[in-house]
Recover the amino acids of this structure.
């Protein structure tokens, strides 16, 4: 799949109609990426797209809703059974080991009792080729650059605490351990082809209709959309030269 055609997992934060909120969007539908404060003590990326506004996964509950084929094998882990290799059981529960890896996760007795049914349902689920914006967690706890991983490559999901009282999803794969892409820097690294309109905003030039210049500030208007965002005055001349090519 071409990068600009990738389907990205997200949590819809606005819905112009009624019914079920969407859980994914296309990269080529993004108009702008900005930072958003859903709560007073933290900010996360928000993606304004042609089909609504989305943000990243921030809770295990959201992950459970988005990855409906994954299973809670204990109270703290959400598991992709398609990646499971062998189950080892004991008196108080068990361990599920994953393919081509020494990584394992816990399995409670209730899940062990339903094991055949859980595995059967997992095999029937379609492969999930959607992608997730993440940052790799280094051994030191430092976060590496923003990138994408496929949902189908996940072994299991739990949560971790990158800072005090801030618990967010952590994704285990054969290639390492990742956390949700929570920073503007991770977005800049994962979307290098987007234009930095100002400090804290990236825009998709393909969707820009025009630049509205006014004394009190300049604004980017997007094609066939009510969405708009600001642009630093120092960036206007350069962006115009790109658009007018």
């Amino acid at each position: 799949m071409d990068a600009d055609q990738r389907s990205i997992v997200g949590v819809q934060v606005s819905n112009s109609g009624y019914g079920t909120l969407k859980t994914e969007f296309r990269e080529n539908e993004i108009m702008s990426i900005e930072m958003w404060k859903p709560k007073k003590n933290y900010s996360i990326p928000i993606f304004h797209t042609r089909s609504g506004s989305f943000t990243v996964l921030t809770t295990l509950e959201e992950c459970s809703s988005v990855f409906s084929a994954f299973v809670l094998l204990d109270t703290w882990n959400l598991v992709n059974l398609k990646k499971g290799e062998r189950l080892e059981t004991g008196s108080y529960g068990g361990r599920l080991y994953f393919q081509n890896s020494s990584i394992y996760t816990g399995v409670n007795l209730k899940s062990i009792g339903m094991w055949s049914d859980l595995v059967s349902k997992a095999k029937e689920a379609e492969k999930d080729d959607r992608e997730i914006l993440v940052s790799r967690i280094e051994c030191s706890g430092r976060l590496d650059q923003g990138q994408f991983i496929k949902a189908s490559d996940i072994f299991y999901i739990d949560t971790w605490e990158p800072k005090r009282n801030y618990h967010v999803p952590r994704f285990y794969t054969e290639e390492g351990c990742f956390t949700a892409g929570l920073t503007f820097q991770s977005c800049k690294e994962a979307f290098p082809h987007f234009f930095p309109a100002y400090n804290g905003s990236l825009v998709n030039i393909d969707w820009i209709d025009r630049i509205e210049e006014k004394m009190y500030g300049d604004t980017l208007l997007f094609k066939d959309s009510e969405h708009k965002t600001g642009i630093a005055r120092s960036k206007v001349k350069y962006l115009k030269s790109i658009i007018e090519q």
In short: The longest helix spans residues 233-243. Residues 201-243 form one domain.
